[in-house]
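Notes from the 1:1 (GR / supervisor)

We went over the backlog. Supervisor wanted to see one worked example end to end before approving the batch request, so GR pasted a single chain during the call. The sequence is below; no edits were made to it. Supervisor asked that the structure be written out right there so they could see what the output format looks like.
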Amino acid sequence: MKHIVIYQEEGRYAAWPANYGIWGFGNEIVVGFTSGYYLNDGGFHSRDRTQPFTAMQARSLDGGEHWECVEMPVKTPGNLGLSVGEHTKPDSHNLEINRPIPLDVTTDFQSDNFAMMFGRKDLEGDAASWFYVSQDRCHSWQGPFELSKMNQIGIAARTDYLVESSSTALIFLTAQTISGQEIGSRVFVARTEDGGKTHQFLSWIDKPDENVFSIMPASVRISDNKILVANRIRKYEDKDQTSNYIDLYCSEDNGISWGYVTRPVSNTGIGGNPPTLTLLQDGRLVMTYGFRDQKCGMRAKISCDQGETWGEEIILRDDAGNHDVGYPRAVLRPDGTLVIVYYYNDEQFRSCYIAATLWKP
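Structure output shown during the call:
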């Protein structure tokens, strides 16, 4: 197991790869994240929201051993970044700049060079989302393009999709069910059959619960018809206490209907953390996630029966300075090495940076 620093800059706060995405092209890997200004205000997420955040991407040509970081070549609505409201306090007058438009380019989801990425206004406001496409391995991005609300109050999209054909893909999203609030949110799957020009609601993945927010799905295809999705869950036990965990759902009919499988992780710590799901070459499943309790860091679990049961928790690292860690995304190298990218910190009052763990389970 090997830990690598991808991006660390004095005075900067870098975080949240899970919000943006990771794309693997063999041993060429690209991951998105954001970089803002560090501010030690004594609270969680020590960033200065009065200063701009920059969308960034890191590229490795040798399977995650070495990385080059650049500003992501994207236009964002209002020039406010890929997660409006979460990082920067939005100025509504600027939102006309780079307003998302209908997709006006031809895409081939099965191209060796294709990638898709989503951005959003977060669920605490009037959630709305948009997307980008790249046809040259993330060297350039076209967009922002409109993502329909599909009759939902609001949609907060992170990047998670499964390609089915050159023009068809399943997209896993979070829907707002109570205006202006994150609580009550649910995960669903949509389908595009025309290369991203239109999107149709397909099915809810989880059950409604007004005391829960269910967000940040991580999907993996097991077979032509079988898909697993892991959701980040926060349950409000009362006004002062929450439970944070990961639930797993399964579809046996390619996303048309879903059933609950199990709770692979019963505690992800303070505030919770999203999972990843990766199918290994030998058929085992690996889930990775940030752990935000005592001995904060990165953890994993392995399933040998397609998610029905999970082994003991594996500590990838537990040396973080505080619980502001995690939000991983992962890709599998051709040699079977798992490249897990996340954000991390070394000391309690130091800023966060982007790191990777290379691990062959």
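Supervisor's comment: The CA atoms of residues 237 and 243 lie 7 Å apart.
Batch request approved.
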